[in-house]
Amino acid sequence: MSTIQKLVQMIDQAVKDLEDVCMKDGLTVPDLSESFTLESEAFRENPAAFEATNIAVAAALQLVAHLMPPTTSLAHAACGHYKSACLRICAESNIAEILRESGSQGLHLDSIAKQSGIERNKLSLVLRYLATHNIFREVIPDVFTHTRISSVMDTGKSLKELQASPDTKHDNTLGLAALVEYVVDEVAKSSAYGYETIKDPITGPSREPHHTPLNRAFGTTLPTYDWYELPENAYRLRRFGAAMKGMSALQPSDVILGAYDWSSLEKDALVVDVGGGIGTSTLALYNAFPQFKYIVQDRPPIIAQAIEACKKENPKALESGCVKFQVFLLKLILHDYSDANALKILSALRMAATPSTILLSIDSLMAYACHVPDSHVAVPGATAPEAPAPLLANWGPVADTSYIPDLTMFFAVGGQERTLGHAKSLLEKSGWKLIRVNRGEGNFTPTLVAKPIQDYKL
Ligand SMILES: C[S@@+](CC[C@H](N)C(=O)[O-])C[C@H]1O[C@@H](n2cnc3c(N)ncnc32)[C@H](O)[C@@H]1O
Description:
Layout: H1 3-25, H2 47-67, H3 70-78, H4 80-92, H5 95-102, E1 107-108, H6 109-116, H7 120-132, E2 137-140, E3 143-145, H8 159-164, H9 176-191, H10 194-199, H11 203-206, H12 213-218, H13 224-227, H14 234-249, E4 270-274, H15 280-288, E5 293-297, H16 300-313, E6 326-331, H17 339-352, E7 358-362, H18 400-413, H19 420-429, E8 432-438, E9 447-452
Helix pairs in contact: 1-2, 4-7, 4-9, 9-14, 9-18
The structure holds S-adenosylmethionine.
The site of S-adenosylmethionine has 15 residues, from helix 15.
């Protein structure tokens, strides 16, 4: 059987499997015209539905790679930033909110232009290009509405509210619109300087934090998190906090709860959320385990945001208490740093650790794009499930949610995601022993669980 026939057969079988499981378990796969909500994505939490969907999508994308003219495939890749540019125009002009308020029949370009303040003819080419990629739909000529994909950019707020308080656009939202805006603004601009940064003999190999693509794009020598604190970046800083909340919303709801066997901790355990941002992980943990004590460590302006968010969402969680057993939680932290700086952080935590301290590091874990016969790291959970042939072993673009942060970290902060072997070696060099990897279904940020190496010389 040819590869193309195999892929078609895989799609056919996967769609049948999806229909069967939906029928059996009463699940619904939403139509492309339906608005995105977290609840409407619930079918993916069913493992069989998740697997069937992934196979169908991975095989369809692989089929496209086989059948589309390579020149067209490459043109899609080479012009990928056009989509980012168009998304930015829409996101910053609140097009998602304007279209939601106009209802499912759609809104004429003239009205969208008037409400968004974008010139009609310019807006037409932006919306039409995105509609060509199923992000928005052109219902009749010059009339546009949402698709499920474009509706992810909707903050859920009214246009009036956004216009009255533009700085707080992303406060108390899921953070997904903030995540899109963050990527298409500072990350997209920075990405244009990836080549210059890599080729520069100083910035390429060393990847020092003040020599990132972002430094070049914005003409600053400040490390990224200092740059965010400049007065002119006040909106970006606020948006970044919300975007991190959006990262959590992209994942199954139990990522942080499944990161560790939390119930094995003593009742007065202390969880230190290192670089905990606006406290998204800590609040989720607090809701499930109010008996523990929590510390969210971050930079002062972020902590101010965290307190504000916490007062709104869970005022009781602001209490603290005594220490017995510590957990250091580093969610989306080590990927921000070069190896040298990640080692500094891990070593400082190792110095502060007691013998019973647990370190949890949550980041994407990079899988090779080819089949790997055996994991060379012998701890439970080390081996990632591979896709069946002829799909790419790492699930191809279905796994983009892992590879995108890898590049985002390089462009925006000079960091990177790591393979398991790479991460393990950093842990060992700083006195931590990797004891297991906790992976969840649909979770693209597994948890590395480590404990102090007892005879390690500090
Ligand atoms: C990628 S974000 C991750 C946020 C959070 N852990 C999460 O998963 O949502 C990295 C966080 O590290 C914080 N950070 C950066 N430099 C720091 C420093 N020197 N001390 C404490 N936190 C810092 C940033 O402000 C930011 O909130």
